[in-house]
Design goal:
The complex is a heterodimer. Chain A contains 17 helices and two strands. Chain A is mostly helical. Chain A has a single domain, classed as ABC transporter involved in vitamin B12 uptake, BtuC (Orthogonal Bundle). In chain A, strands 1-2 form a two-stranded antiparallel sheet. In chain A, α6 packs parallel to α8 and α13 crosses α14. Chain B is mostly helical. Helix content of chain B is 74%, strand content 5%. A two-stranded antiparallel sheet of chain B has the order 1-2. The radius of gyration of chain B is 21 Å and the shape is globular. Classes of the chains: A mainly alpha, B mainly alpha. At the A-B interface, α8, α13 and α15 of A face α7, α12 and α14 of B.
Chain lengths: 373, 336
């Protein structure tokens, strides 16, 4: 066992180039990143309400949920399938503490009280689940988090006192203040964008902060980190705390987006969708989940029309998603990002240009296959 | 057994008391006070038997799952799909030929074949990459679920119980005493008892095959150390294929069983995947006796829970899992 560990460590490249990349903001010199940021900021000028909310805001919300999974899986080596459950819990809490159409359940707190409460409770919920999950390793984590997610789904279905059974909680109130209806398309888009950007940069920052580096050390070799004096389990639980908070933020946005929450939105299938989003996008970089979410949302929205246009049955959308997911897992260990990077590398090696930026891509070699403990 | 009593006298005492109370609850005629507290004895006995027979079904599903995991470290999240596939095949056969027994055989063979194909075409290519294999099984379960929805639609199917198994049977368990002094015996569906007996037989057969035959010896060796086993010249790939076929076939058989005493519909695959996950987490991954114990505990918890605390039945199951994880993270009967 230890031999295998030792053999694996030199494979992971920690070149000087990568070190320098770790210190600075990685995307600050990348014109493409600036272009994407600019487009996202002026999106309301380009897109109408349907595209703005149904495509881009939904993408950002799902991307944020998947980002929390990416943080755990990519940096912590823990594939947690309960991120959607945490988001759903937070959404339920917003509905329960805030104002909704089900007056006998909702406590009617103003949003600025209900939201912090929901965030805190969901973070605690996720932390407890995480504390349970870190008692096991690798492959067991998937099973336990899946079981937690499924248990929550069945519980919301059966519980009428708090979760209102399978009908869920409807017409959840959204915030109105400073004379602005924040659920109107354009303000809501900016809220979602701000939260998503905040989470993205927070994940990006933490991945380079001492805590994030220690977490990546724990992922690669827990024994060695323990021998160095790091508390392995504490790092893992702390990662769950952070990821739960990110997921909880996304959950608040989700319940404001749809204005209702029901067990259907925390079903096992939806939990797995988040995993699919993260894996299709790529789980080694924080941008991956957002790319995956964009692909997923576009497919979900337009696959029906597309399939019908090809003369096929439009209801086979999930088949398309499943096959696409299988193809990605089969041929790329790092989702769409991995495909793109290997394509870039092939182009570069074809041109045989030895520019200094080459190390940037070769540093991304941490495949998911090596994540098992 | 005696060593356990010597080592943990307090625990042994508690276990003995619990067993004694359980036996008394089953066999004795309940006095008025107990009936007031727990309700009718018939309800209790029915829930108990339902729990045990459901445990038998869970064992059939989970044993294949745990067998595959134990040997290949492959968490087959498409196991629920194999269950549902077996159920649909069983339904088609029994509807076409009217033979219940034949539907078992065909379901076993076809799902085993699917298992062989999966192992040969998919999992052999990514051996040793646990996480990637699991991802692939997730993808496969989505694809299978949609294909089955396509082929069979969203309707509920129930496999016809054969005539000789229809109807209740009287068990020598007194549920109450009539005012005339005549005892009332428990009546219970025969088919569930037969199915439970069958799952016990299958479980025993598996245990014997694993512990008393050469192939079983090879499989156990593979569970302990795959690499050394391969190095001794055993054709490990062949063993993998056989075990995968057996595990998948068991899921198919369980599908026919589930289709007979429950029903088949989209979504059942997830339900039984979850059930087998919880069962093997509680019992211990890769252990057949663990799967049996876990299945019994979860089946009983589900049925007794749904009778006595209907709102929180699922939470009881979950709490058991949490408790086991807190005390023994690798499951009750996992080897340390």
């Amino acid at each position: 066992m230890s031999l295998a560990h030792d053999a694996r460590v030199p494979v992971r490249p920690a070149t000087a180039v990568q070190r320098s990349r770790l210190r600075g903001w990685p995307d600050i010199d990348n014109p493409a990143a600036w272009a994407v940021a600019a487009i996202l900021l002026i999106m309301p000028l380009i897109a109408n309400g349907f595209f703005l909310i149904e495509i881009f805001a939904t993408t950002l919300i799902l991307g944020t949920m998947a980002l929390s999974l990416m943080f755990l899986a990519g940096y912590g080596g823990m594939v947690s399938l309960m991120q959607l459950t945490i988001a759903g819990f937070s959404a339920y809490m917003v509905a329960v503490f805030g104002v909704s159409g089900n007056a006998n359940i909702s406590l009617g707190w103003p949003w600025w009280l209900a939201v912090p409460m929901a965030l805190a409770l969901a973070t605690i919920f996720g932390t407890l689940g995480g504390a349970l999950a870190v008692r096991t390793e690798g492959i067991y984590t998937i099973m336990i988090t899946l079981a937690i997610g499924a248990a929550f789904y069945y519980f919301t279905n059966q519980n009428w006192a708090i979760f209102n059974g399978h009908t869920g909680i409807n017409t959840v109130a959204t915030p109105h203040f400073w004379g602005v209806n924040w659920r109107a398309d354009i303000p809501f888009y900016y809220i979602v964008l701000a939260v998503a950007a905040l989470c993205y940069f927070a994940v990006d920052y933490i991945s380079r902060a001492p805590f994030g580096l220690a977490l990546q050390g724990v992922r690669d070799n827990p024994r060695r980190m323990a021998a160095l004096g790091f508390n392995v389990n504490a790092h893992r639980v702390a990662a769950y705390v952070f990821a739960s908070f990110v997921a909880a933020l996304a959950g608040v946005l989700q319940v404001w987006n749809y204005r209702q929450i029901s067990p259907g939105s925390v079903s096992v299938g939806a939990c797995i969708d988040i995993l699919i989003i993260a894996v299709v996008g790529g789980i080694t970089r924080p941008i991956g989940p957002f790319i995956g979410a964009l692909i997923f949302v576009l497919l979900r929205t337009f696959a029906l029309d597309f399939l019908v246009k090809l003369g096929l049955d439009g209801n086979r959308f999930r088949l398309l998603i499943g096959l696409g997911f299988l193809a990605i897992v089969f041929w790329s260990s790092d989702g769409v990002i991995g495909l793109w990077q290997s394509w870039r590398r092939r182009q570069r090696s074809g041109a045989a240009s030895s520019s200094g930026r080459r190390g940037r891509e070769s540093g991304q070699g941490s495949s998911q296959g090596s994540n098992h403990g | 057994m005696t060593r356990f009593v010597e080592r943990h006298p307090a625990w042994a005492l508690i276990v003995i008391i619990v067993i004694a109370v359980a036996l008394w609850l089953v066999f004795a005629v309940w006095p008025q006070g107990v009936e007031d507290a727990f309700g009718r004895k018939r309800v209790f006995l029915n829930a108990l038997f339902n729990g045990i027979t459901l445990g038998g079904l869970y064992f059939l599903v989970a044993s294949g799952f745990t067998l595959i995991f134990g040997l290949m470290r492959n968490v087959n999240l498409a196991h629920g799909s194999l269950y549902l596939f077996g159920g649909y095949v069983g339904y088609a056969i029994s509807a076409a030929t009217g033979s219940w027994v034949l539907s078992f055989i065909v379901a076993f063979v076809l799902t085993a074949l699917v298992g062989v194909l999966l192992q040969v075409l998919v999992f052999r290519r990514m051996e040793g990459q646990d996480l990637r294999q699991t991802m692939v099984t997730i993808g496969l379960s989505i694809v299978f679920a949609d294909l089955m929805l396509w082929a069979c639609g969203g309707d509920f199917y129930q496999i016809q119980t054969p005539n000789w198994l229809i109807g209740p049977v009287e068990l020598p368990l007194v549920t109450a005493i009539k005012s005339s002094g005549e005892p009332v015996y428990l009546r219970y569906p025969l088919v569930r008892l037969v199915i439970f007996a069958a799952s016990v037989v299958i479980g025993m057969a598996m245990w014997l095959a694993l512990n008393r035959t050469r192939i079983g010896m090879i499989i156990r060796a593979g569970v302990d150390d795959r690499d050394i086993l391969a190095a001794t010249g055993v054709r490990i790939q062949l063993v993998f294929v056989v075990v995968f076929a057996l595990g998948a076939g068991l899921a198919g058989v369980a599908g026919v069983v589930g289709g007979t005493f429950q029903s088949l519909s989209p979504g059942e695959d997830i339900r039984f995947l979850l059930a087998s996950l919880v069962v093997v987490i509680v019992g211990g991954m890769g252990s057949i006796p663990g799967a049996a114990l876990g299945a019994l505990i979860i089946g009983l918890a589900e049925q007794l829970g749904s009778v006595y605390i209907p709102t929180y039945a699922i939470v009881v199951t979950f709490l058991i899992m949490v408790l086991v994880l807190a005390i023994r993270p690798r499951g009750l009967l996992a080897r340390r």
